[in-house]
């Protein structure tokens, strides 16, 4: 029985009827390095001693000798919840390149994987990692690099495939738990969303492909009563999923033209725009490319385009200027006169002298 294959998802993995899994890719460990790679140093730090789970932190080497604050990118790796880790060459290379391009601090999250640890374990582990990262917001967390270099006013969540799915659910959970104001933006790269009913006429009707996706979701989430219509997976087609509560101000969705999941990504962006969510959504479509192909081929033009787009998204100004206040906290006339609303539109106060840090118009933040 141990030789009988239940799910064959080669060249990624095979699951046997005995329950044994054979991972065929994504298992190589790339060590961190304090010797700069592409201008970036890296190290691993445990965030969950209970489960022996770590994050890999990426820091631009030029910032390592200073207390410079940088945008913070928290990244969740893909792999269908089954393969890949935060320490595989694919993600080490991608994060190193992205951190260089965006001039940010990167935290790549490792989580336990199915089928040994089926859904919801990957969500809970990665949420614990995000809370661990946020524990540094006061500057007194356990990891020095995050304390010294993370600008928590510029926190971004990102992930590809299953990691993109995780990002969406964490942004929604952040809203429910009242910490959405801490998340500036979310990047979903080829997000792993699906459902039994195609989202539009262009989504594949190939029954072999659809059965394959259903089988792979069963590996990741064997206890889902609704199968691929589980709201964790069927984010776009499910009427029970309300995107208006997404806990961030900006979203970037990256899709690939030849990816089976591309129509789901486009459908997600369209649903988000119609949901009443007060934010800005951008879509980047890569022509003639399959699912996360650019991650596996980091030297291609498409890989550079994705990295540059993510860097542009992180760097995008939300109007920066001085925010000088007097000794008693009173606003000074020379201080910035522009405020940023949650929908990224701008508000010009009629009388700046009447406003203070703690008396901003409802739904606005000083930028």
Automatic annotation (TrEMBL):
Active site residues of this protein: 161
Domain Alpha/beta hydrolase fold-3: 73-294
Superkingdom of the source species: Eukaryota
InterPro entries xrefs: AB_hydrolase_3 (IPR013094), AB_hydrolase_fold (IPR029058), Carboxylest/Gibb_receptor (IPR050466), Lipase_GDXG_put_SER_AS (IPR033140)
SUPFAM superfamilies in the record: alpha/beta-Hydrolases
Signal peptide: none
Family of the protein in this entry: Belongs to the 'GDXG' lipolytic enzyme family.
The protein, known as: Alpha/beta hydrolase fold-3 domain-containing protein
Organism field: Brassica cretica (Mustard)
Taxonomic path: Eukaryota, Viridiplantae, Streptophyta, Embryophyta, Tracheophyta
